[in-house]
Amino acid sequence: MLVASDLVFAEIFKEICLMKKTDSLLRLFLLVIICSVYAGCQERKVNCTAIKNGRFYFYPSRSDRSYMILRKDSLQTEIDVKTGGTSFWRVRWIDSCTYTTRFLYASSPEVTNLFSNNHIVIVQILRARKDYYVFTGRLDSISSPNSLTDTIWLHKK
Question: CB count, 10 Å around CB of 67?
């Protein structure tokens, strides 16, 4: 489906192609510039394939804690690196870059008391790069005003 930006690009491309043959270097230069700008303006789809399973590291921005996250299929294990406290979560992927987690149980009563089996966390992956991904997490609803946006790393910092 063509959108307005596609039509503008097509029109510019046509004009450049109609330039005189003697202006071939200029035509080539303009084509490269226009194609680069056009490609940069297109919405990039986030590729979340590499983060569905694996070992990840979370360093919350407002805390001195750090966590190692092990995610495999529908189970996520979160380990507090400092205390060794471990919690287990059920993971359900809604689409390629959105999933929910539901608390299952934890190794300590303190952690268990923090969470309720009645709530889910909805996680949207906003950006995925070679070394990290940026997410937003919300409690119970994708439209919840209470959210956390932070970074999870694919390696130790």
Answer: 19
Reference 70, options 52, 85, 84; nearest CA is 52
User: Burial letters for 9-45: b for 16+ Cβ neighbours within 10 Å, e otherwise?
Assistant: beeeeeebeeeeeeeeeebeebeeebeeeeeeeeeee
Residue with tokens 């949207």: 124
In tens, the pLDDT along 55-108 reads 999 999 989 999 999 999 899 999 999 999 999 999 999 999 999 999 999 998
Query: What is the value of pTM for the model shown?
Result: 0.69
Q: How far apart are CA 105 and CA 114, in angstroms?
A: 11
Task: Tell me the domain boundaries of the chain.
Answer: 4-41, 49-153
Residue 112 predicted with pLDDT over 50: yes
Q: Tell me the residue ranges of DSSP E strands in the chain.
A: 54-58, 67-72, 75-80, 86-95, 98-106, 120-128, 132-139, 147-153
Per DSSP, the three-state class of 27 is: helix
